[in-house]
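Example 3.2
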Amino acid sequence: MTRMTDIRDITEADFERILALNDAEVQQTSAMDRERLRLLVGLSSQSKVAIVDGEVAAFLLAMRDGAPYENDNYRWFAARFARFLYVDRIVVDSRFAGRKIGSLLYSSLFEHAQLQGIQTITCEYNLEPPNPASRAFHDRFGFRELGTQWVAGGTKKVSLQAAEI
């Protein structure tokens, strides 16, 4: 049976599930409570969930240039690009891995960027501790490394990535 995946905007009713998904991948993302999630959704130009059979299977948060976002990685990109979309996080429930749900979210993001006239999408993923799944995923979308930096008090080294549309 083929499962239908719908992409829609995040609502507050999704918060509990999003927080659980984030907690499951906190080593690859960063900690987030309800207040932080509300702030990030408010700063985002794209805050989407992927719904499979009525269940939130994944989420994505992305901010535009000019957002008042206090984040080392976002600031790094803001210093280099006048117009960009920054992927703060994308998380797919491990039970739904391999079903192209992350790709659906990114296709929606790239389409949004094109409609807004934004030609650069940025993100980072961990080099230390390594995140090979994220590296492979971003490589498929044409991301390339522009630099690296240590974050989270020196506990994570990230690869700062950009894809041109």
